[in-house]
Amino acid sequence: MSSPRTSRALFLTILLAPFVLIFSVFMLYPLAQSAVLAAHQTYGPGTREYVGAHNLSLLINDPLFWKALKNTLVYTLGSLLIQLPIAFALALALNSPKLRGRSIYRLVFFSPQLMGLVFVSILGVLAFEKRMGLVNRSLAWVTGNSELLELDWLQEHVMATLVLLSLWLYAGFNMIYFLAALQNVDRSLIEASEIDGAGPIARLRHVILPSIKPVATFVVLLSMIGSLQLFELPYILLDSSGGPSNSGLTVVMYLYQNGFELGDLGYASAIGWALAIMLIVLALIQMNMIRRQERLG
Amino acid sequence: MSKPLLHKLALHLGLIALGIIVLIPFAWLIIASLKPSEAFFSALFLPPGDGLFGVDWGALTLDNYTNLFGLGFGRALLNSIFYSSAAAIFATLFCASTGYALAKFRFRGNGLLTLLILGALIVPPSLLIAPGYELLYDLGLLDTAWGLLLPAFAPAFGVFLFRQAVLQSVPDQLLEAARIDGCSELSIFFVIVLPLIRPMIGAFMLITFLAMWNNFISPQIVIQSADKQPLSVAIAQLRGVYRTDYGLLMAATVVSVAPVALLFLILQKQFISGLTSGAVKG
Questions:
Q1: Contact, B176 vs B230, CB < 8 A?
Q2: B254-269 pLDDT tens trace
Q3: CATH 1.10.3720.10 region(s) of chain B?
């Protein structure tokens, strides 16, 4: 018979070993390697050549990187400014008391999330096609203007296409968070404001918005973190290129092109770090908020 | 009609109109997957004809689906089911056990491990693409199922979620009572702890399953052989080769999305509660 002490140690090892082992090998080790790689140039895997800070100066002077960053930021801002107000408005509409069929509406607006990004991208390629696509044919039918059939989304309006697709995909997803927050707003506060004679706008500004601020900030940060890593949509919509004069090139696409089409994993890691620094700042803000919320809750 | 009633009616009309706009792409997708190419170009939705509701029902066909499976798409479907199930089962098991150990046991390294896991939460996945690929190359795991699955077995946020779930819903007294009754630690974990955190298990399994199903960049980098590709990579390649065969691409999208949509519809309550559990209390 083993002593209780060793059997407890054995049990803990069984609980922890699989995760700790895999986590160390496939998370911590590559994380450390990403810093090392960023100071190397490679010609495919296993061919490192030390270049020191060269990648950094390359990056700073790389017009394509800046173009990719600009595109990514435009997409991020575009999708935040259009998508989040719509998501919030949907949540407000669904939050009205005694609304019949709320769960059905919620499911309908959420349903695009059932499709993964790749599959949405394939649908997008077909829907935004000139002449044949759903979007142009609907536009032409609604307006009666057949010139709209010739609208070339995938060549001339790449950013608009990306923002519209992500609106369809994510508005309902973010609505879920807003709706959950709205349903947690203290009803007595709302009733008190009604008794005080506050109109709907004043109520929104002074009662509802302050009480959902933590969730709203969480949603904004989550959307930013996701948007900054945009890859699948433009990669498939633009057929693995950056689109006409790289108008749809994103940072992660540029990372992918350098690492896997040109074989320079070192430069790819440097790009990864440039993006990671931005994302880590955002994520730290987010975690700080969650912790503060937990303390309050 | 009274004013509140009018408001209500306007609200419903607005919501229904928006709902239709959201759902139209699905209808278009499904109908187009059933049409031969000629009909795809002529009608936006159902082909007009002499049948019921003025629709030529006879023009609809399953040919796109037969062609699709003739091209070996069924293999990709099976691969996706295998990868996603394996990731869901093992990630849940490993994360739940680690989360339990961190929440309920005091041992040397507990604080450090918790800190590392919290730190890993903020590492963006795109940072690990290049070094992760090189690691798989060094280990000889490129173009293997292990190369795709092993990194997916230990997501840091899973441990974080399960640690929270155990802290919230597994009381210490219950564990102590079970120990006094002579329960072994292993049976305490399986018989007492896991059932108590079942809502989180359901939500997390679904989330990992969907994440693997929809994952594109990892299999795109790791898997080269056609017979090992999941749906996400297979459909992207299909699009590269058959770019004008709209019906075929539509059918491929339907086949790729339908299984997870069905799974989601069955388990939607758990999914949505899991989704918001990190952000919203109550």
A1: no
A2: 999 999 988 888 877 7
A3: 70-277
Q: Do B279 and A219 touch (CB under 8 A)?
A: yes
A37 and B134 in contact by Cβ < 8 A?
A: yes
Question: What is the per-residue pLDDT across A217-236, written as a single tens digit (0 to 9) for each?
Answer: 889 988 999 999 999 999 99
Question: What is the rounded average pLDDT for all residues in chain B?
Answer: 89
Would the pLDDT of A261 be above 70? yes
Q: Residue B262: closest CA among chain A residues belongs to which residue?
A: A114
Residue B161 near residue A287, CB atoms below 8 Å: no
**A19-72 confidence digits (pLDDT tens):** 999 999 999 999 999 999 999 999 988 889 999 899 999 999 999 999 999 999
User: Residue ranges of the domains in chain A?
Assistant: 53-113+159-296
**Residues B268 and B206: beta-carbon distance below 8 Å:** no
DSSP letter for B47, please: P
Q: Do A22 and B151 touch (CB under 8 A)?
A: yes
- pLDDT, position A189: 84
The partner residue sitting opposite B22, judged by closest CB among A20, A26, A109, is A109
Whether the CB of B4 is below 8 Å from some CB of chain A: the reply is no
The whole-angstrom distance between A243's CA and the closest CA on chain B is 15
Class of domain B70-277: mainly alpha
Alpha-carbon distance B102 to nearest alpha carbon in chain A (angstroms): 9
Determine the pLDDT at residue A289: 78
**Residue B120: which of B161, B152, B160 has the closest Cα?**
B160
User: Is CATH 1.10.3720.10 the classification given to domain A53-113+159-296?
Assistant: yes
Residues A272-285 have pLDDT tens digits of 999 999 999 988 88
Q: Is the pTM of this model over 0.80?
A: yes
Q: Is the Cβ of B246 closer than 8 Å to some Cβ of chain A?
A: yes
